[in-house]
């Protein structure tokens, strides 16, 4: 193990130890020439191991994925092999789970879906790259929540014509049965590792054997049964019983998330709130649709009333003129009628006593009506004249 301040390859200064395990030690180092930081993994030399690692690292240098640190340098020093890659600041998944104590299933799904994107990318290459070392300490979550997969030290290229791996490598509790020499590591090997990582996130337990997650008593009673079913399918001992691909696993997790979204009571209550909001918005929209309709009716009514008022005004003018003419003609007609009445009364008074009495009555009526309006006297006289005739 190197001490802080040690210089590697004449340019990397050791600042601190990031982690260590059975496969070696990882250091945080500073490039004293470029003034930047790198993660450097130290592995002890082994002839068979070195050949395998060099072959894989030369391919990993060409990888391009935002969730995979770049491998920028490989070198030997003394009796050790060193792999230089991007330094990712953050917590390992193991640290994250231990700090949080318990995380929601939705958070587990989010993390595992990000991991599946990285693994799916590796498997899509030609030939595919098998990661082979999925475990919480090799998964880093940075401060913004992005997931990274680090430490590609034992990753390998899949060889279709090989029956088994050249060297049996993996992490206890997370390694698939085929990694123990039973068969060659393949895509389902990484699916097995993903299942074990999900088990750890869901229960907080480090699996001591591959069979542990297969038993219901190792899960809490309130955990999602469908999610447990997915984990169990991932870690089946037989390769053929696991998911055919990471894509199929990812698809089922997404579908499960959609089903749960509409199966939660709390979401139903939220949905009712949304419905009320929608109804309220609909009422507002309805009001705004009705208001213009009534305004149109109002303006149309005002227009029609205006047209009608113009026509009536003309008729009123004619009627008013006629009335004025009639009123003016009444005095003249009344005057002529009075003259006739007076002449008639004078002739009849000399010859007939009865007519004289009537004349006397007329005189009395005339005297009585002197106090009434002229218009009334005129019409009274006219009436008397007609009666006289």
Automatic annotation (TrEMBL):
Keywords for this protein: ATP-binding, Membrane, Nucleotide-binding, Transmembrane, Transmembrane helix
Polar residues bias (residue ranges): 339-377
Top-level taxonomic group: Bacteria
Region span, Disordered: 330-389
Single GO term (MF): protein kinase activity
PROSITE patterns to which the protein is assigned, alphabetical: PROTEIN_KINASE_ATP, PROTEIN_KINASE_DOM, PROTEIN_KINASE_ST
Ranges of biased composition (kind: Basic residues): 379-389
Record field: transmembrane: 287-306
Pfam families assigned to the protein according to its UniProt record, in alphabetical order: Pkinase (PF00069)
Segments forming a coiled coil: none
Keyword Nucleotide-binding: yes
Protein kinase domain mapped to chain residues: 12-254
Binding-site list for ATP: 41
PANTHER family the record matches: OVARIAN-SPECIFIC SERINE/THREONINE-PROTEIN KINASE LOK-RELATED, SERINE_THREONINE-PROTEIN KINASE CHK2
Protein name: Protein kinase domain-containing protein
Source species of the chain: Clostridium folliculivorans
């Amino acid at each position: 193990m190197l001490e802080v301040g040690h210089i590697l390859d004449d340019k990397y200064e050791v600042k601190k130890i990031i982690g260590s395990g059975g496969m070696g030690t990882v250091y945080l180092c500073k490039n004293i020439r470029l003034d930047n930081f790198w993660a450097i993994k130290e592995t002890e030399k082994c002839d068979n191991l070195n050949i395998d690692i060099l072959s894989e690292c030369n391919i990993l240098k060409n990888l391009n994925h935002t969730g995979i640190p770049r491998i920028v340098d490989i070198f030997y020093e003394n009796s050790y092999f060193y792999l230089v890659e991007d330094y990712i600041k953050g917590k390992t998944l193991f640290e994250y789970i231990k700090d949080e104590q318990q995380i929601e299933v939705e958070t587990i799904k989010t993390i595992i879906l990000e991991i599946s994107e990285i693994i799916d990318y590796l498997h899509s290459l030609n030939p595919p790259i098998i990661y082979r070392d999925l475990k919480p300490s090799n998964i880093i979550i940075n401060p913004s929540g992005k997931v990274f997969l680090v430490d590609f030290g034992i990753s390998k290229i899949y060889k279709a014509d090989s029956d088994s791996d050249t060297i049996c490598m993996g992490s206890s509790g997370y390694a698939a049965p085929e990694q123990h020499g039973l068969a060659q590591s393949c895509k389902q090997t990484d699916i097995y590792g993903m299942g074990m990582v999900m088990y750890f996130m869901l229960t907080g337990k480090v699996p001591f054997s591959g069979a542990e997650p297969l038993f219901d008593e190792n899960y809490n009673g309130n955990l999602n049964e469908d999610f447990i079913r997915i984990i169990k399918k991932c870690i089946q001992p037989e390769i053929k019983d696991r998911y055919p691909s990471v894509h199929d696993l990812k698809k089922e997790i997404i579908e499960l998330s959609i089903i749960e979204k509409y199966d939660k009571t709390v979401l139903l209550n939220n949905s009712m709130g949304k419905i009320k909001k929608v109804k309220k918005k609909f009422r507002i929209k309805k009001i705004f649709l009705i208001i213009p309709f009534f305004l149109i009716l109002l303006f149309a009514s005002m227009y029609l009333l205006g047209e009608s008022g113009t026509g009536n005004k003309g008729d009123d003018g004619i009627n008013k003129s006629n009335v004025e003419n009639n009123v003016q003609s009444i005095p003249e007609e009344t005057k002529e009628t009075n003259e006739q009445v007076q002449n008639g009364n004078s002739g009849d008074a000399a010859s007939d006593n009865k007519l004289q009495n009537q004349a006397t009555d007329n005189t009395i009526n005339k005297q009585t009506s002197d106090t009434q309006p002229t218009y009334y006297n005129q019409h009274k006289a006219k009436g008397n004249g007609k009666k006289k005739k």
